Amino acid sequence: MPENPSSSPTEPPEQSAAFEKWRSGLAQFTGLGLSESEKAERERLKAQGKLAKDWDKCEGWKRDLMNYSPMITFLLNHLKLAGCPFPSSAMQCHPCPENRAGGFSPDHGILLCQDRFFNKKHMEDTLAHELVHAFDHCRFKVDWGNLRHHACSEIRAANLSGDCRFTREVKRGFYAFNKQHQACVKRRAILSVLANPACTSPEMAEKAVNEVWESCFTDTRPFDEIY
After folding, report:
1. Whole-angstrom Cα distance, residue 7 to residue 11?
2. Can you tell me the distance from the alpha carbon of 6 to that of 72, in angstroms, rounded to the nearest whole number?
3. 133 labelled as ligand-binding?
4. Where in the sequence is the domain holding 125, given as residue range(s)?
5. Which pLDDT tens digit goes with each residue over 55-92?
6. How far apart are CA 49 and CA 127, in angstroms?
7. Of the candidates 120, 141, 162, which is a domain's last residue?
8. Is 20 annotated as catalytic?
9. Do both 124 and 154 map to the same domain?
10. Within 10 A of 66 (CB to CB), how many other CB atoms are there?
11. Same domain, 64 and 51
12. Candidate list 124, 130, 154, 206, residue with the active-site label
């Protein structure tokens, strides 16, 4: 019996499966033609892949800095000399909210915000900043609930880490040639103290920073001078 000309020939199963695989792959690549659940899964996998990529980069930079950065190796050595060796495991790479690059906790060590670094130099400055806090906590027994203590460590960390170098300030939109470094250190110290739960106002943060400014800005330990 002749075939009905209006009917379509049935595709072999393997050909149909190959087409579906191609269609699905194209949809995943472009995002077009996906169901809502498929779109959600696609975004989840993309985010998961980005997290893994950011973590790998952060860990790689951390290893490089611990081995080859004069600033970081110097601070790590002085932490060890002070009786507080700081292993790699105490410096953790994690994703963070915006406007944060790192942090120090006496209980948990150093946080490195893996998705917030512009480049390795930015990470070096951040790690140096947090290692100054670690050094202060070890060497001077900082009470982080005491705003004057906190202010002093923030002044020292901003002053010594490279966080306030001129090029960083230009990127932040601050342009001044007269005492720009001091202005940056004070501004950033006040912002950090303001985030302390014991601080209830910008005026309180500024007062704490001003009260310890002279002694803490000139205290460059463990460096002989500003790096």
Report:
1. 12
2. 76
3. yes
4. 44-141
5. 999 999 999 999 999 999 999 999 999 999 999 999 99
6. 25
7. 141
8. no
9. no
10. 16
11. yes
12. 130
